[in-house]
Amino acid sequence: MTQPSQSNSSDYFDDHDSQFLEALQTIVLPGDLPNSNEGERIEVDEETVEPPPCAQPSLKRRLLDEDKDENNGPSEKRMKLSTQESNGTSDRKSTTPEPPPCTQAFIKRHRHIDGEEAFRERNLSLSQQIPNEDDTYAPTRFGEFGDYMRKKRAKLQIQNAQLAVLGGDDEGSQIFRGIAIYINGHTKPSVQDLRQLIVQHGGIFQPYLVKKALVTHIVTCSLTPAKVREFRYMKVVRPEWLVDSVAARELLPWRDYIFIHNERPEASQGVKTGQRTLFNAQTGPPRAHTASQSVRPMKTPSMLATHPPQTPIKSRANLVSTSTAGPSNIDRGNGKVDSNTPEPSSVPAAHPQIPAEPRSKSRSTSAVPPDPLYTTDPDSLEDASRVPAYAAYTSNPLAERVMANPGWRKAHTSIAPGYVEGFYKHSRLHHLSTWKSELRNLVQEAQEKAESGLGLQVGLDGNGGSLGKVRSEANATDADADVSMRRAELVVRSPSSRWKGKQKALDNQERVIMHCDFDCFFVSAGLVSRPHLKGKPVVVCHSQGRQGGGSSTSEIASASYEARSFGVRNGMSLHQARKLCPNIITIPYEFESYKQFSLQFYTVLMSHADDLQAVSVDEALIDVTSTVTQLRGRAFSGGSPVDPAKDFAESIRAQIRKATNCEVSIGIAHNIMLARLATRQAKPAGSFHLKPELVAEFMADLDIADLHGFGSSTKQKAQEKLGVTKLGELVKKSKDTLCEALGKGVGETLYNALRGVDNRKLESDKPRKSVSCDINYGIRFEKNEQVEAFVYQMASEIKKRLESIDMLGRSLTLKIMKRDPTAPVEAPKFMGHGACDLFNKQMPLLASGGRATRDDQIIGDHAWRLLKSFNFDPKELRGIGIQVTKLESTSEATNIPVGQKTLSFKKTNPSTSGPFFPESHVQVPNEKHILLETLEKQERHAEPSKASNMLELPPLSQVDKSVFEALPRDLREELEQAYKRRSASPFPVAVPLAVPAPMLTYKRPGPSTIFPQRFSSKETNVKRIARQLAPRKNHSRISTLKSLLSPKAKRKKPSVKISEAKLQEFGMDSEVFFMLPMKIQYEQLAMARIIKEKGFIPEVPSERRVLKPRKPAPVPEHLRWVAPAPKARYPEPPFLRRQGKKKTEKLYFTETDDIQSMLEKWMHAYHRWAPREKDVELLTTYLLKCVDNSIGGDSGVERAIAVMKWWLVLLRRYFPGSELEEEGEPDGIWTDRVGNAWWDSFRGTKKQMDIMARQRYGGKLSYK
Amino acid sequence: MSDQILSFNQAIQGIAEFIEVAIHTILYVRQIYPADLFVRRKKYETPVFQSRHPALNEYISGAVKAIAEEMAHGNVDKVVVIIKDKQQIALERFIFSVQNLIPAESFNKDTSVEGAMTAASLAQYFRSFLIKLNMIEASLGQMELDDDASFAIVLELKDDAAPSVTDPRIPPPWIPADTQHTTPGTSEEAELHMIRSVNTGIVDLSLAVQESGEKIEREREKEKAAKLQRKEVAEGKKKD
Lengths: 1264, 240
What we know:
The complex is a heterodimer.
Chain A: H1 2-9, H2 18-26, H3 38-47, H4 57-69, H5 75-94, H6 104-122, H7 133-137, H8 147-168, E1 180-184, H9 191-200, E2 204-206, E3 217-220, H10 225-230, E4 235-237, H11 240-248, H12 274-282, H13 290-310, H14 320-334, H15 356-362, H16 381-386, H17 397-403, H18 406-412, H19 419-426, H20 428-451, H21 473-476, E5 513-518, H22 521-528, E6 538-540, E7 558-559, H23 561-564, H24 574-580, E8 585-587, H25 591-608, E9 611-616, E10 619-623, H26 625-638, H27 644-660, E11 664-669, H28 672-682, E12 687-689, H29 695-700, H30 712-721, H31 727-730, H32 735-742, H33 744-754, E13 771-775, H34 784-805, E14 807-808, E15 811-819, E16 836-844, H35 856-870, E17 877-885, E18 888-889, H36 890-895, H37 918-940, H38 961-966, H39 969-984, H40 998-1001, H41 1018-1029, H42 1035-1045, H43 1047-1052, H44 1060-1066, H45 1070-1075, H46 1078-1094, E19 1136-1139, E20 1146-1149, H47 1152-1166, H48 1173-1187, H49 1189-1214, H50 1233-1257, E21 1260-1261
Parallel strand pairs in A: 1-2, 1-3, 3-4, 6-8, 11-12
Antiparallel strand pairs in A: 5-10, 5-11, 6-7, 9-10, 13-17, 14-18, 15-16, 15-17, 19-20
Chain B: H1 8-29, E1 38-43, E2 46-51, H2 54-73, E3 76-84, E4 90-100, H3 119-135, E5 150-157, E6 191-199, E7 203-211, H4 213-239
Antiparallel strand pairs in B: 1-2, 3-4, 3-5, 4-7, 6-7
């Protein structure tokens, strides 16, 4: 047992450690026998094993001390300890009687070696992660301090490997293979447990996050904000991912377990917004009455006091009623205040709370107080602070009481079975929005009909009831009270091309847009049947009579003008309204009559309008340009001073009044925005024409928030950055200023709006963009199952809606409202959502084949998966919304090419043990046989042989999906590609390399649960996979195959007449060929012929292209003549011609070097004689040509100068004496005739060249 | 610079740019302005000297811009930088001789010219231009101008071509040159030193220095005077 380690261990240390070893031996360690026996000692010497890396004896000493009493040392040492312990167990099993080791050091060493051996034997797959252990356990030498951490990590990995060996090998589970996990902070289960889980299931546990690249996932229960930022781009998951994955025995998608920061798991960390509550209390709604001033200081402490007890409650539903009763009691104890507590007497009775008043008063303060917002259930604390008398932090006591009753809960909250349907039956907003879209559809349909010439029914003049028909009137009496407008039909006045008139370049001032709006629609509709209530303060809301008591949170949908004079506003709660006007009268919703009136309203408008945009059930924009122009013409000729537009509006009003008994107000202007403004002026029950010349004056007094499309946020921005919100002042600002303050888009729009410019067109045919279903009332769940059921209910609602508009969707967005941690469990509004945090998530909504869908099951699946991934406490949910976007009509959808088909096979249990597809083994010999044969033949004919593997791929539609998906990713992609190619060209032989090169290097075994050690070589890989992809009930196929193989079967089949020899020529197996159906035989033959001729298969275009004769495109006039591409031109270099060796041969020299060397040769040959005239002339001619600008160009000059310079050099070399002759220095210098002759010829040439050069440069050339 | 083949416009721009660089270099090399007026920079992978004086730079770049315009029209024959003394007598003429080889009309000037030089190799040529220009001092005679030197940029157009006028309201930047400064006005005694030339296939460019006859005359006189002096000294010695 010690033998192998002996040889190994000697490698561990360099000789310089011997001193240390000596020191170690001499040291008496605690627990050592003073005179340990010699034999043991020798063993120690021989082994020279010393695992711990510390180089200092003292350290070693300490380590051993700790070893003994197992106290907490530095972490590294502790790790070490645990290794030994874990080894120790296995050690003891394997070791046979050994004398009890007498020294601690010895034991330690021993165990360590064992561990190592075990480790080495395993030769774990992890080994690439684990560095050379020799190195790892070597002592850290001087100057290697930086290595410490690296080694430490490596050691921990070794330790992990051992851990895996100990616990995990019985199952061999490798679900975490390839995953490296870092655990951050305190987790539940503990780090140790998680580490064990990870390691035992094939994952890598990284104890340190040194390099982020090493880690694939981070597991955590809580993160500091800094770390949230740091890990922003990493996969941060909750520990449940690991636990659940192990439980499920497969790797679950980590996305479902994403760690979402923002929850504070520990109450000790405090409530999120302790500060904010204070702030909110102070910046609360400005109420400039003495009463409210006295209220505020009281409120603040009470609110602060109520907070702490709320936080611990949130997770315990059954405690809710009791413990949250506390805060409200406190409220009551404080006496006055809270507007929600049912003590109306404590609040001053009816004080005229007109919001405009305090607003203008408080304007003087630097901060802009937010505008009051009227809603009973604001969804953020910011909004809540704007709602007068809305106490965001108080719980609704009534709700708490009823919620405590499980029976009531079951019947009335979102747990209730038909909740979604019921909700929509009673939701006013739902009706309104549905009607709006329905009206739009009606308008659109009517227009389409008008255009196709069907709707011609009504006269132009249009006086009275015969204008159009509301066909739905009969339906309206239906007992089942279907309030849908779907069966109604609007009829358009005339099928004129005026629908297109809006495209005409009409002068903007000429357009006439009317904004028609019912005056307090719900109220006036209700009053039609209750004429006795006219002139009294009436509101429409759900709550009736006195039943809700003073604390009713029912929202007022509409208030009569009489009620409004008390300060009652739409959106207030009934309770608030009661305070303002105690004897207010409520009437219920009457959706039936609303619908009827609305349709009549639209019918009338439709009969007059050129174009109509349905804004809502009681509001519409119409373009009446043509009629008004006509009228104007008439009025003009009649000389009447009245405004024809206003007259026309009055007649429309009269008609509507006649049809509905309700008052409508109409604003008239030349664009949409101004028309809306005019309506404000027209109300109640009037009409107003805002003429272009009056616009500036009219708008000056308005506020920015009065403009349609600009809300309080814009107003606030304007106040902050520009200091003004009045339109009259804003109009003076430059466009740039506005854009800078409000953003480019808004700034520009506002700039235009201020000048009365609005280029929007009426949107009569805007297509529907999305279908959604949002429910945020009464959402109170207890369990995830309830949520799930509810989500599916919503999904079926969405399906209904999609069906009604005949659309399919491609994308799904889930909106979640989760209770703000600081908000009370029961919102102030009864069963409302209260202050919430909002979450959105989107995902593509795909049915099989990547198609758009409206299947409720699929929508539900998607939505539920998204919701699950948030991992919210069901009790905290306050609102759920599902929105389906990227709509396409069903007819459209069918035209879209189908993507990849979903493989629809029975799910197999991937964990079945034993041989996989027993049936498939049967066919092995057959198919292989065929395959090999074809392979051989094809290789003989030098065809791409690998392609034949494709023969084995079963048709895509028959592939078992579960197996397919379980394949390793790269393999799967290959197969997908192969299928794609195959579908592109039906001829398998032509498929280029069905098994690409990566297969060759493929070594990594797939997930062992699926394919336990099946892949032996690349060849079998593919075949096996292909087989497994094939349907399992393919006995029949095999049998036919068998029978076909027999010669008898071959004859029976009808086949193409072709000789076997011919087939051989094409590289086809005749046997296989004749087995194929006729059609494919033809195909194969055709392909083979093409291949033979061209050598390749022409690519099949991916899209089918319709061949059309190409029309000769007329060439536009200005493009007739196309200039040729410019071409470079180089001057032809002059050449020097010389006779070659043979007589006929001529040599041409152009390069400077050549000429120079020739010159040299020439001079060398002739230096004893004067140069021949002819030669000189030749050279001169050449040089002159060079210098001549028209021939040689400037580079020629350069070349000539170079040649001349060289000549000069040569002359000076051969005849130095003759140079100065010209200078007239006769004294004493010997001159010779040859030299003179040479110099003369040089000078002659030079002179000629100078003359030539003078043309271009003037002067002469210098050869200096 | 890439190894993209030059287009007509690129060639013109490249040459104009080079002329600008070269003018700065000439002013430095010929010591027209004090050396500390210049900063050393890198251009065409070689050190060059650029004037730091904004007015001078403006003048040069303005002139080069005008030159580039004329070159684009294919009118330019030579661009001459004249070094002159106080009496406006040209002593040296640095001649950038330009030759358009392809007609300036009738094609898209931004397409690469088939078979032309690449931008990268043109830059290499310019580098060799500049290196030789820096060394030219050795083969030129001393001017001994001290502070009197100045320079001028003369544009010589092809025969019968006139400076094009882009905007009739703005007077053309050019004025008629002094005859002595022009090529036809050069005396026969002037000596031309070829520095470098390049054929781009689009526009050929060469740079040469011409020492004017006046300068050579002066040098000779100076030499004679020196000789006389030497003779006198020698004679004086003999007498002694």
